[in-house]
Amino acid sequence: MQHGLVLIDKPQDWTSFDVVAKMRGVLGTKKVGHGGTLDPLATGLLVLGANQGTKLLQFLLGQDKAYTATVRLGQSTLSDDSQSEVLETKDASGITADQIDKVIASLTGPLDQIPSSVSAKKIDGVRAYDLVRQGNKVDLKPKSIVIRDFARTSELSHHDGLVDFDISVRCSSGTYIRALARDMGQALEVGGHLIELRRTAVASFLIGDATAITEEPRWISLADAASRLFPSFEISGDQERDLRHGKKIELESDESEIALIREQQLIALVTRTGSQYKSIAVFQEEQ
User: Fold this and answer.
1) What is the pLDDT averaged over residues 40-55?
2) Which residues are catalytic?
3) CA distances from 261 to 128, 254, 258, 267 (A)
4) Structure pTM?
């Protein structure tokens, strides 16, 4: 039985659950999960954990992500992307690249972002998108995010009073790229939405290392995966035994969280407590 992570390039119109269901059959195990949902519109990097690799997925949830996307100005939609009806159309032909770049600059850095109304956010236990589809008005609270890098990466394309252009974004977890397109359109007073979205990175995992859903997947071992997420430290057999017995251990390190490796196997993830380290996840010996 193999354990670790698998990087998949999600096709458009597949849900993240569709990919998990497919890969359960491909990987030969029911214990498969993903480290962050992608909308059906989106393509790109979906990080899957299999067997003991599922223990690592929780540590991906708060990591930075990177995207490329195409924005359309001149139309606002219910879902802030092209997968719902157009609510309003305005002439955006007069919008210039300089105006767009200034709005992009204003949306870079720490922001309080209102999530898209057609999102998975819950209101009184009900998903926002279910409420919207039932005809209810949704009022979501702003969420603090950080847009670390935001740039326009193409010239403007004009057609029928609309303006399309490409962007790249690196951001904190929880950011809605659809909402960025919406907010750009609102700032320019013409409306906006996404017509394409692709995730290119999650933490240090890159789309270039992913395989298509139809290809033979490439495994990232537990030790390699954990070492990409945390500083790694080689431990002794005695230290491994202590960890497996629930004991704290001493390490010559000042790091707050560490991946502990022995003989190329991931033994545990630990966190600093006082002058010692205690386990937050212990991994069984791989068979």
Assistant:
1) 96
2) 39
3) 42, 17, 10, 6
4) 0.91
